[in-house]
Amino acid sequence: MSIVLDRLFKRFDNHLVVNDVSLEVADGEFFVLLGPSGSGKSTVLRLIAGLTEIDQGNVRLHGRDVTRLAPQRRGVGLVFQHYALFRHMSVAENIEFALRIRRVAPQERRRRREELLDLVGLSGLGGRSPRQLSGGQQQRVALARALARQPEVLLLDEPFGALDARIRTELRRTIRAIQRELKITTIFVTHDQEEAFELADRLGVMNFGRLLEIGPPQELYLRPQTEFVATFLGTANLMVGEVTPEGVRLGPVQFPLSTRGGVAGVPRRVQVLFRPEDVAVKTSEDALAWPLLGEGVVEASDFVGSYERLRLRLPKIAGVRPIAPTAPFGGDFILIEASRSQHQARRFPLQAGDSAWVGVRRVHALTHPGLSLLVMAGGSQEELAALDLGGRIASLAHARLTILGGGGDEAEVRSRLQQARERLGGGLAALETAPGGEDPLEAVVRETTRQHYDLLVQGMPARNGAEVAERSLQAGDHHLLLVPAPGPVPSKLLICVAVGEPGKEDVVFAGRLARHLNAQATILTVLPAPADPRERERAKRFLAAGSRTLSLLEGDHDLVVVGAPLVAHRGRATLDRLVRGLLGDLRDHPVLIVRAHEVLA
Questions:
Q1: CA 391, CA 388: separation in Å to the nearest integer?
Q2: Measured between alpha carbons, how far is 216 from 204 in angstroms, rounded to an integer?
């Protein structure tokens, strides 16, 4: 293997930017790291190059451990988005620079320079200065300079980000042709999916510092295993349906399953993916030869060159929860993305407002459960209650459940985890165990660093509940369910929200949980007295929209849901006064704290 990354970690200001990344890249392979801005992909590249110090883990290049070597001793060529050319030097001098400082003979420098100018398509332009070149030509110079030292590994960090679409396409072809000719192992970082699909032998998708999936582009596009990859790689129609031995059921509609994602013989909930090109759209029901999803209304019809892009609005389907595209907050319908060839568009013309019948040619079931839960194994009444409720929620939601061992010696922890397994029994989509530690919350931090969790289920302590909740929320980016005592699975949720964007997040996640639990949900907001009439009307509209959203999610109250906009206090996140007060008063019911994504100043 040319490149081997072994469990890399990197933190900046206590923020984990690279989280347990391991990767192997074969000799001569063109590997693409793809992900949104801030996902950690550029930091991984800098760790390989030696430009950023590694906190933990190892980097091996062609069998050499280079983890502690200086960048110039790693045999790596680098190309960045901003060309970083020396403006006072000519093109030829820029290319020769690395050879000159290594005291390569002038004749050899000139030979290598002319060879590279020809290779990157700039023959005859060596005498020009960078300012006399276009952006695309400057990036070709940067590539030639990176190749001058004949590196064993080439690293490219979003090299086309500052260029227009036509130049990007030309340079992609140039780089791919050069890489194949030189057979140089390459890692290319981008957030552009088209770029990744065109260039990659294999690609890896990153998010929040984690490398989620690796595989050939076509495999990840057609058969992703996680919700993020399914929705990030191109446009996706993603819904929660039910998989059966015969295929997939979306409400009353049965589809044969074209690609099987961990399908079991027992019916269970599953995430169902179909791409826009898998959607058949016709003007009459008789014209469809595929399983029929229903009749909808065209919301938008866009000309996109070689194809037409359609967005259709269908009535909500009983028993089906849409994940992507997301309906607007307050919508009680399902949106479907479709694409058609211009030939089809001419045969069956459609415009906004027209009715259309929608069929689906192909579906794929994701193997990864929709929810991931973490629960601490312990011996107190509250901890056992949390374990029982977490297990029942995981069973109903077909979620992944991880049991985290508490404090004690190794034998004691192993025994406790085995007892927890036996207590939960079977019927879970995925059950894992993880060792604990002396400090339970340190164990939570360690485990949430290893893997993302949607929900931490924890026993509610008899005292200092707010302080424990703050520490638990500080440990990761999960929501928190506090369980005070043994009890049945909640069947009536009271969702206490503030009017505005954070309240929408509360409704969506709580509604998702209510859907899994087959529970009723009520939304409550409290206005200050005396309330401004306009504020009261705004609150009414918000509650009505939330009610419609819950009707899509389908979901006397035995679970209270509160939003938690965390407040920054001396470098740590704390709960606001209202939530702290509620935790002091609510001792008879489980409490779900839905954390906001942003910390308030």
A1: 5
A2: 9
User: Of all helices (H) and strands (E), which one includes residue 205?
Assistant: strand 202-207
Please tell me whether the peptide bond between 435 and the residue prior to it is cis, using omega within 30 degrees of 0.
no
Q: Which residues contact 475 (CB under 8 A, 6 or more apart)?
A: 441, 444, 445, 448, 456
Token duo for residue 408: 């004690």
Residue 219 near residue 199, CB atoms below 8 Å: no
Question: Which parts of the chain have pLDDT scores under 50?
Answer: 260-264, 550, 553-555, 599-601
Closest among 193, 154, 202 to 24, alpha carbons compared: 202
The neighbouring-strand residues paired with 24 are 4
The Cα–Cα gap between 369 and 466 comes to 30
CA atoms within 13 A on the CB side of 108: 10
Contact 557, 528 (CB under 8 A): no
| Pairing assessment for the beta strands 30-34 and 355-360 based on DSSP bridges | unpaired
The closest alpha carbon to 61, from 71, 76, 46, 72, belongs to: 76
Which contiguous run of DSSP H or E holds residue 296?
strand 292-304
In sequence order, which residues have a C-beta less than 8 Å from that of residue 282 and are 6 or more positions away? 288, 348, 356, 357, 359
In angstroms, the Cα distances linking 428 to 320, 332, 555 are 21, 31, 21
Residue among 582, 576, 581, 579 nearest 599 (CA) = 576
In sign, the C-alpha dihedral spanning 329, 333, 337, 340 is negative
pLDDT, tens only, 79-100: 887 767 888 888 888 888 878 8
User: Could you tell me the end-to-end alpha-carbon distance of the chain, in angstroms, rounded to an integer?
Assistant: 47
> Which residues share a beta bridge with 339?
309
Alpha-carbon distance of 552 to 550, in angstroms, equals: 5
Euclidean distance between CA atoms 5 and 21, whole angstroms: 7
Q: Measured between alpha carbons, how far is 519 from 517 in angstroms, rounded to an integer?
A: 5
pTM for this one? 0.70
Is there a contact between 502 and 492 (Cβ–Cβ < 8 Å)?
no
What pLDDT is stored for residue 93 in this prediction? 87
d(CA 267, CA 246) in angstroms, rounded, equals 10
Read off the tokens for 42: 């550029």
Rounded-to-integer distance, Cα 39 and Cα 21, Å = 12
Closest CA relative to residue 31, chosen from 155, 140, 119, 146: 155
Q: How many CA atoms lie within 13 A of 3 on its CB side?
A: 27
> What are the CA-CA distances from residue 137 to residues 59, 299, 371 (Å)?
33, 43, 48
Is the C-alpha dihedral spanning 505, 511, 514, 516 positive or negative? negative
- What pLDDT is recorded for position 60? 96
Helices (H), 148-246: 165-182, 193-199, 217-222, 227-232
For 42-77, the DSSP string reads: HHHHHHHHTSS--SEEEEEETTEE-TTS-GGGS-EE
- Tell me the β-bridge partners of 568: 573
Burial class (CB in 10 A: 0-12, 13-18, 19+), 397: buried
Centre a 10 Å sphere on the Cβ of residue 88 and count the other Cβ atoms it contains: 9
Q: Give the span between the Cα atoms of 162 and 190, in whole angstroms.
A: 12
Strands 76-79 and 153-157: parallel
Phi, psi for 495 (deg, rounded to 5): -100, 110
Q: Which amino acid is at 306?
A: S
- Return d(Cα 442, Cα 282) in angstroms, integer: 56
| Distance of alpha carbon 147 from alpha carbon 181, whole angstroms | 13
